[in-house]
Design brief:
Radius of gyration: 17 Å
CATH topology of the largest domain: Fumarylacetoacetate hydrolase, domain 2
Strand content: 35-45%
Structural class: mainly beta
Shape: globular
Order of helices and strands: EEEEEEHEEEEEEEHHEEEHEEE
Bound molecules: zinc ion
Distance between the termini: 36 Å
Number of domains: 2
Number of helices: 4
Oligomer: single chain
Amino acid sequence: MRIVRYQVKEEAPQYGWLLDDKIGEVDGDIFGRYRRRDANIPRADVKLLAPCQPSKIVCVGRNYVDHAKELGNEVPKVPLIFLKPQSSIIASGEAILLPPQSAQVEHEAELVIVIGKRGRHITTEDAKKHILGYTVGNDVTARDLQKSDGQWTRAKGFDTFCVFGPWIDTDFDPSDAVVTCRVNGQMRQMASTRDMVFSVPTLVAYISSVMTLEPGDLIFSGTPAGVGPLKPGDRVDVEIDGLGGISNPVRAE
Ligand code: ZN
């Protein structure tokens, strides 16, 4: 099933499910008990929002060997994790704003894990039970500030720097999917998720050994090689084969 969050005109946002180009309402809690109504609302009649509201966004750095190398870094011995704030979230279609503090904002195409069930000290064997599904992400990064600050909060935390969507796919198999990023139609990043250093279950287990994972929390699983700068007027497309794609224009703030 593909879960969406959507809005009709000025009405309150709500969860739904997508079948072809039609949306059906979902009654209840998508992380618990719910009932699906018939999919009969044309997708073109609604605004799709970021597909959930995470209490936290956990990201993994240097989880592809080639990307660690291209920035001159070693592959970490354990997952390298950091957080992005909720205020950085935008949906597919909304503009990524380049802040005046940075001269080098870059795209990072990523597979994103969506947590479905609360847990702490989750084992790798149990990880799947705690995952609701997967979505497509762009971990937008001010590369110059990441280097100069040491701490990554500013570089990763600007408003509009967390794109994910357009839906959560609950049936997606993350073991060998091709992740691509195009800027103005030109391929920048392409790799399979099988090249990740730390697998999805390992990431869930590791992160939950540190912090309780809540329903709706996101894990950005790291980006492959090929990261590069974004300029005003660009359009950046991130796609994951069999999952979906997000597309955002880029503007100066
Ligand atoms: Zn990243």
